[in-house]
């Protein structure tokens, strides 16, 4: 392992369509290519990360089959009762990753676990051990498998909702990154995130965590996820710079990030670092991401010949993506190694 312990990083935004899943996958692939053993954890019932990692053709035949075990198999004993998490569920190797990237596939039935959490969270908040046992299920799986499999980084993808499931995921994460687009809706999304995440953390500290008593620490979520930065994604380019409307929003975003995320969820030197500049600015790559979804490869690994009517701009964009994701992943890795 390259880190003393496994790091759990969450890609989150209250707004859908900001490229969260695509960024999570491409960052994970970049970590893997730099020698970090990385595992993708698909905790979105839509299972988009699973589809992207496996490729559309391969995934179509496994969505409702038992070809690959998934997150529901991990949680089945907890959801159906009478047992605990299944630590034997294997992760799936992801191609083109130098053998360092793996996937725990999502499941559309993850909502059944969320139904259980309604009572479990209340029990944990009242100091009852069953509540801790149930709410910590995903986190305990990651910690146990992180040690046994010597995983450097878990990259977690969730739905954009502020649901109870996402609350539990957030309370167990070590770090979170917020992808956004340069528009008003994304800014609203970060405001929502900052306010709601703060309430989640405070409620957990004064209820669930505070009342844990003699409960084993492995059952108690840390509730201290650190905001490490934001990513501006899918800006449009004209004359080799962002278009005027996107530039205007990109200038407004830092102050909103500072107020709602950095000052509430950062610490030490990261408070200023996390808002002053984005971790990366990723341009709109047009048709490239759609092709990558079809065949299950990172943007920077796409063979230009795979796109019909190839033109010089496509080749340039693929080359540029290599630089952008190298920069993004390096920035994240530096933070993970320091905090």
Question: Keywords, please?
Answer:
alpha/beta, two-stranded antiparallel ribbon, single chain, 50% helix, 339 residues, DNA_Partitioning_ATPase
Give the CATH level 1 class. Alpha Beta
Spatial arrangement of strands, main beta sheet: 3-4-2-5-1-6-7-10
Say which CATH homologous superfamily is assigned.
Answer: P-loop containing nucleotide triphosphate hydrolases
Total number of domains:
1
Low-confidence stretches: none
Write up this protein:
With 339 residues, the chain is α/β, with parallel strands linked by helices. The longest helix has 27 residues. The protein is globular, with a radius of gyration of 20 Å. It comes from Candidatus Wolfebacteria bacterium RIFOXYB1_FULL_54_12. This is AAA domain-containing protein. InterPro entries: AAA_dom, DNA_Partitioning_ATPase, P-loop_NTPase.
Which SSEs are present, and which pair or pack?
Elements (H helix, E strand, L loop, with lengths): L6 E5 L8 H14 L4 E6 L4 H7 L1 H5 L10 H10 L11 E2 L7 E4 L5 H16 L3 H7 L1 H12 L4 E6 L5 H9 L2 E6 L3 H25 L17 E10 L1 E2 L2 E2 L1 H22 L4 H7 L3 E4 L4 H8 L16 H27 L1
Parallel strand pairs: 1-5, 1-6, 2-4, 2-5, 6-7, 7-10
Antiparallel strand pairs: 3-4, 8-9
Helix pairs in contact: 1-2, 1-13, 2-12, 4-5, 5-6, 9-10, 10-11
């Amino acid at each position: 392992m390259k880190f003393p312990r496994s790091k759990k990083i969450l890609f989150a935004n209250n707004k859908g369509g900001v490229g969260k899943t695509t960024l999570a996958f491409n960052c994970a692939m970049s970590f893997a290519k730099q020698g970090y053993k990385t595992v993708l954890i698909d905790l979105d019932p839509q299972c988009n990360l699973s589809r992207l990692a496996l490729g559309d053709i391969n995934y179509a035949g496994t969505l409702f089959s038992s070809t690959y075990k998934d997150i529901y198999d991990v949680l089945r004993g907890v959801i159906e009762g009478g047992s605990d998490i299944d630590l034997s569920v294997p992760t799936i190797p992801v191609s083109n990753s130098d053998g360092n990237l793996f996937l725990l596939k999502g499941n559309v039935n993850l909502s059944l676990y969320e139904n259980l959490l309604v009572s479990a969270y209340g029990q944990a908040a009242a100091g009852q051990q069953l509540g801790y046992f149930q709410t910590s299920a995903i986190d305990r799986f990651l910690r146990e498998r992180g040690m046994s499999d010597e995983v450097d980084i878990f990259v977690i993808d969730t739905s954009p909702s502020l649901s109870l499931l996402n609350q539990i995921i957030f309370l167990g994460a070590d770090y979170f990154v917020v992808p956004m687009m340069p528009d008003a809706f994304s800014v609203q999304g970060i405001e929502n995130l900052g306010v709601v995440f703060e309430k989640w953390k405070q409620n957990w500290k004064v209820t669930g965590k505070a009342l844990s008593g003699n409960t084993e620490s492995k059952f108690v979520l840390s509730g201290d996820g650190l905001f490490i930065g934001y990513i501006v994604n899918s800006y449009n380019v004209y004359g080799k710079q962002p278009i005027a409307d996107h530039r205007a929003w990109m200038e407004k975003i830092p102050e909103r990030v500072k107020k709602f995320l950095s000052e509430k969820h950062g610490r030490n030197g990261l408070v200023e670092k996390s808002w002053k500049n984005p971790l990366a600015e990723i341009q709109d790559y047009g048709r490239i991401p759609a092709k990558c979804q079809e065949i299950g490869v990172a943007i920077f690994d796409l063979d230009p010949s795979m796109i019909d009517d190839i033109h010089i701009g496509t080749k340039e964009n693929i080359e540029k993506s290599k630089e952008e994701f190298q920069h993004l992943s390096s920035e994240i890795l530096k933070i993970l190694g320091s905090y």
